Amino acid sequence: MKPSLKLLDYSILQQCMHCGMCLPACPTYDATKKERHSPRGRISLMRAVADGELKLSAAFADEMSYCLGCLACQTACPAGVDYSNLLETARAEVQSAGLNQTFTSRFWRTVTIRGLFMRPRLLRFVGRLLWLYQRLGLQTAFRKIGLTKLLPKDLRRLEPQCPTIATKFSPQLIRPVESPAKKQHRVALLTGCVQDLVFADINRDTADVLLANGCEVHTPPVQPCCGSLHAHNGEADAAKTLAKRMIDLFPPSQFDAIITNAGGCGNHLRHYGSLLAEDAVYAPAQARRAA
Ligand code: SF4
Ligand code: SF4
Fold first, then answer.
1. What angle do CA 53, 95, 47 make, to 5 degrees?
2. For 156-185, how does the pLDDT look when each residue is reduced to its tens digit (9 = 90+)?
């Protein structure tokens, strides 16, 4: 079943009590001071769509896209509004309605979200090429002589934000299983996708902290993306596929905890229950009992 605001548990849409406590936390509201660019405004728009008072439109799609998905509003909200669930549902609906899509946006979505971020080995290979490009000084040289100005407009805008790729990725720093002197817990360590390419040293530090606290750390060298990128960008089917791969890799019954040091991944892992609630095989026992 395609995600839809109309089909979403209505109690989630009703959670917002319009108090405005989230407004100061929201960067898009801070930038424009427009209500429709605030969490409260967006929730009202989503509810209007769910109630049939507002049609899915390019303007609605724009508004959902303008949200950064940072979830600062969720932390600030005293009513515990499940904003990430609302945003993911709205974006998935916008995506399946094909709103505001151009040839270029479809192309980049296919290359990145549906391509690279579904294939961990390929992602590492591209990461290694990017590392070489940076390490050989080509990035600095191209910037200096202005070659980056020849990039298409959107890429040109993003190019300065290209992160520095790590020299070693997680499997070169962390063994698949590492044991402490006295084992008290058994945990799985999620290395992440971008986290692995850019902050593999922090993954190593995380493993060290876990070992120092008596955890046997399991870190499979090849791990799928957790699917947060896909869920946050309206790719609900891909998000479900990746969630299932992750559960297969880290069966929750075999670990005391699944550890991640990436905030977006951590938040998304906690939503696997609702994401897979309708799946006959993967729905958590709790969700099946509740159904
Ligand atoms: S996710 Fe971030 S940008 Fe979006 S409404 Fe919440 S605080 Fe604002
Ligand atoms: S999202 Fe939360 S903090 Fe923001 S207006 Fe609604 S209830 Fe208040």
1. 25
2. 888 888 999 999 999 999 999 999 999 999
Contact 211, 174 (CB under 8 A): no
Task: State whether the beta carbon of 274 lies less than 6 angstroms from ligand 1.
Answer: no
Rounded Cα distance between 271 and 197, Å, is 24
CA of 17 to the centre of ligand 2 (A): 6
CA 109-87-289 angle, 5° bins:
110
DSSP reduced 3-state for 102: coil
Phi, psi of 154 (to 5 degrees): -65, -40
Cβ pair 75, 10 in contact under 8 A: no
Cα separation, 170 vs 183, in Å, equals: 22
**What atom in ligand 2 is closest to the CA of residue 80?**
2
- The one-letter code for the residue type at 56 is L
The confidence score (pLDDT) of residue 284 equals: 62
Report the relative pairing of strands 185-189 and 177-178 from DSSP bridges.
Answer: unpaired
Ligand 2 pocket member 21 (CB < 6 A): yes
- pTM for the whole thing? 0.84
Question: Cα(78) to centroid of ligand 2, in Å?
Answer: 7
Q: Which residue has the tokens 């709790």?
A: 286
Query: What residues have CB less than 8 Å from 189, skipping those under 6 apart?
Result: 174, 203, 206, 207, 210, 217, 218, 219, 259, 260
Is 234's C-beta closer than 6 angstroms to any atom of ligand 1? no
